[in-house]
Amino acid sequence: MCGIVGYIGHREAYPIVLKGLKRLEYRGYDSTGVAIIQDGDLQVHKKKGKVVELEEAVVGKNMHSTICIGHTRWATHGEPSDRNAHPHLSNNGRLAMLHNGIIENYAQIKQELTNKGYTFKSDTDTEVLLNFIQDIQDNNKSTLEEALRIALKRIVGAYCILLIDQDDPETIIAARKGSPLVIGIGKGEHFLASDASPIIEYTKEVLGNEKQTPFIQKLDMELAAIEKGGYEHFMLKEIFEQPDTIFDCLRGRLLHEQQQIVMAGVDNHIEALTKASRILIVACGTSWHAGLVAEYMIEELCRIPVEVEYASEFRYRNPVIHAGDVIIAISQSGETADTLVALESAKEKGAFIFGVVNAVGSSIARLSHAGAYTHAGPEIGVASTKAFTGQLAVLTMMALKMAKAKGSISDERYSHLVNELASVPKKVKEILADTSKIESIAQQYKGASDFLYLGRGYNFPIALEGALKLKEITYIHAEGYPAAEMKHGPIALVDENLPVVFVATKDMYYDKVVSNIQEIKARKGQVIAVATLGDTVLPTMSDNIMFVPDIDEVIAPLLSVIPLQLLSYYVGTYKGIDVDKPRNLAKSVTVE
Ligand code: M6R
Fold it and tell me: Is this prediction's pTM over 0.70?
């Protein structure tokens, strides 16, 4: 999604903004641009394509300025092109503005402005808002800030905007609603960005703006966390970080020796959580898959009914929500617009919102009544990997804690699962110790046009997640299905060219999944199995096998997803795809 960077102070602004835009590239974008003010002259440079193409285009130009705003655009209104790239200029040429979000009522405002003689160089909603601001300023003879405030009262939608005026090189005006903005405070300088990554190398002091009263807070992030650290891609780095990120997530919470789980967010609201007549889980994409695993866990361990909802559907189908209903919101970025608006409306109806979020201080974290961070650190690769296992770790601890408080789990089972969960970081490390088999499977199947992913029980959501990962970063069509459901339709696809990935670790469904594998083999499908180390049956009937250490089925998703992440990664890189920034995708989907 769009990325925003701004700088105003005493240094050369353009290099800071350019570097910041590169740091935001992971969010996904299709064009980029900057605006500076030089001796009362407002200059805008913008280009379709990567930041580096803009950088090359301005080589030799005088970019000296102490004020600069920059943008990476992810197209919503109008195709990716130079003219649709931000920043945009107002009709009088004095104002430049960039924007992340969507102005939903832009068409009506555009019509009004067109009637007044305004013209538009782009197809964007942003240029409409900018000229609307100019119009108000001209008519009301108001300051730019006042004009902006008046304009925003009329705006329906979400936005974060930066606005500059060629007559005022000392000011960047910023406004946000529903879209993220971090403001970093240096000595006589300010940094603005969509997230903290462009800011942390200059300052760790950022402005918090909860409840309208600004206050300064410290950023808990290191520069190294957002750099590749010797790995070829962020995605690979993030896959390999998982033993540590899962450990960090469990640290201080899963007190293995004492057989205790300490989670303040859960402890403080244990009544609301355990007495809920049902729990709704709201999320999108990979986070939705984590929600499905949680559904199985909470229903099995806590005996509370759970419904897992796509946030985008939940919001608009007028769901029945009662005061006191518990909603678990899952999000890596904490900024996903579909999830955010779903939660806002549920909160208005009196639901209790528990956030499972990775990005500290993000909008969903702030909106939640309580929550637990996943502590996976910044996830830069567009495909979610370490954030997913962080979500699973948090949700497992929650389910265990709630079950214990409710008395719906035996001491023995609780203790067993606590021990199993504590063993996860070490076991993930074992899977990552040798990836050669997975690399050779990827090499073998990189030319396939379709994949089927099958699993049952706790491994069904992992089949969905494996298929999503493959689609995202290899552009190969893949579908995930419950293994048994395969015979109700997808089996028609099976022939000698179809690779079928079975997530078939040892669990209560194992024998049935073995039968499903035989059904595929009988039709000459290519079987790739994720199996439990020591399994001697699956190697006899699979074309390829990826082993994971033995673990209880409740915890198994934390292990069985790892080979699938790697499989997608290697297929994607063998196909020459930029796996960190696959086409059309955005890391943080901040539009509905
Ligand atoms: O930041 P969120 O977890 O709310 O994002 C939700 C989805 O957009 C995200 O999981 C998406 O599906 C990823 N690209 C998956 O790899």
Answer: yes
